[in-house]
Amino acid sequence: MEVKEVYSLAAKIQDAFDEPACEINRRKDASTRKKGCSKPPTPGAAAGGCAFDGAKVVLQPITDVAHLVHAPLACEGNSWDNRGTASSGPMLWRTSFTTDLTELDIMMGQSERRLFHAIRQIKEAYAPPAIFVYATCVTALIGDDILAVCKRAAEKFGLPVVPINAPGFVGSKNLGNKLAGEALLDHVIGTVEPDDAGPYDINILGEFNLSGEFWLVKPLLDRLGIRVRACIPGDARYRDVASSHRARAAMLVCSTALINLARKMEERWQIPFFEGSFYGITATSEALRRIAELLVKKGADTEILDRTDKLIAEEEAIAWKRLESYRPRLKGKRVLINSGGVKSWSLVHALMEIGMEVVGTSVKKSTVEDKERIKQVLKEEHHMFESIAPRELYAMLSEQKADIMLSGGRTQFIALKAKTPWLDINQERHHPYAGYDGMVELVRQIDLAIHNPVWSDVREPAPWEDDPAVAEQLSSPHTHSATASVAPLKTSRLDAGDFAEC
Question: Where is this region: Disordered (predicted)?
């Protein structure tokens, strides 16, 4: 049984590498298409997290599910909680569950028994619609059969217990994203038949609802009469994900993470998909049009196309009017985007719409299709960089080649040291930037950052740089001498009368 499971995991990994829809343009010839995805870094050298972390990031936002990590306590300290994903209802996903294995459990072979009891405790205490069980490096190395335990628990307790076989040592965080999608395909999607399927049902894949930004887009779809059958994973419910195979069309937001899920859902259930973005006015409008067109191709009434055009015209007029006051303040300002994935190209187009100049964008986590979109917008390849060393990034910012940097929290201190405005656009951000309202908010935050008066103050030379006398006084050894004379402290006893005049 163990050999079969190892082979199964190896097959899943190889299948994830051989992904024809990832990094290969469909217009390429067959021989080029067979190359599939590039191999990830060597385990242990994977930048940005391990496979377990990647799987947890993708599945954790399914909000009514209990997520159980089968591992020693330290493995529960993964990075999912620093993502500002929001829920409109259940909060069970915010509770951390772990089997908390010790050396004694491992030595005595009690880890599988401990897992079974943990599943029982969660079921009795929380009664979730499903439990996701995550394998980790330790439990995979000692050979725990989580598939068998989950199957037995599901039969015993009468609820879905889903094994997520993505131990950290098998590869990078992005591989974990894909293995999470495979787990949904194998154990979740298609297990529930909805009784209300309609011609206007869609799936949104690779949308994490960071800072609740999908809530800025969903009202637009509601006004068009389009129902989101499942948003995977942002603010999702287990039953919605399980019945998502009855959607008529799908939009893929983050192709780096879930391209395999979108492609295989198209193959199994004939759900056509397209890659789009809700960042920027033009991108949002294009996404709405593409959704409507796919629905019409799947049998929806053509009148939805007219309603979509009308909605887009109304929303664009409102958004552009709100942006007019920012245009003269930001026109010609230079911005450096140090991010990847969908933001590497969608933000480029969005910022150029208001007159800003993009001096560079990172493409480290972007697919070939993402890079092609950047080339079409920027027209110059030298503005794209795979990665940039902190020293080079600091030099670029300190030489004021950019007026602001948009990135994640890991590089904010480089910008601050270079005395350059910085704005968080990654998962830790506190403001939603999707849709028409989100674009206005993004521009507002950029304007606040660039024109913050603190930058003019910190860029002024220090007093010792202007006045040589002050510099000489500060550098004098007598200034910091340990033997410098200090007035002795005086102590005295105070009587009540000393306070009479107070």
Answer: 468-487
CATH topology classification for 201-323? Rossmann fold (3.40.50)
Q: Is the dihedral of CA 465, 471, 472, 475 positive or negative?
A: negative
* CATH fold for domain 327-429: Rossmann fold (3.40.50)
Helices assigned H by DSSP within 108-145: 111-126, 137-141
Residue 486 has pLDDT above 60, yes or no: no
Using CA atoms, how far apart are residues 472 and 205, in angstroms rounded to an integer?
Answer: 63
Q: Which CATH superfamily is domain 2-187 in?
A: Nitrogenase molybdenum iron protein domain (3.40.50.1980)
Question: What digits encode the pLDDT tens for the residues 261-276?
Answer: 999 999 999 999 998 8
Q: How far apart are CA 20 and CA 337, in angstroms?
A: 28
- Which strands, in side-by-side order, build the sheet including 384-385? 384-385, 357-362, 334-338, 404-407, 422-424
- Residue for token digits 């936002």? 61
- Give 477: exposed, middle or buried? Use CB within 10 Å, 0-12, 13-18, 19+: exposed
What is the pTM for the complete model shown? 0.81
Per-residue pLDDT, 210: 86
Q: Does residue 206 contact residue 252 with C-beta atoms inside 8 Å?
A: yes
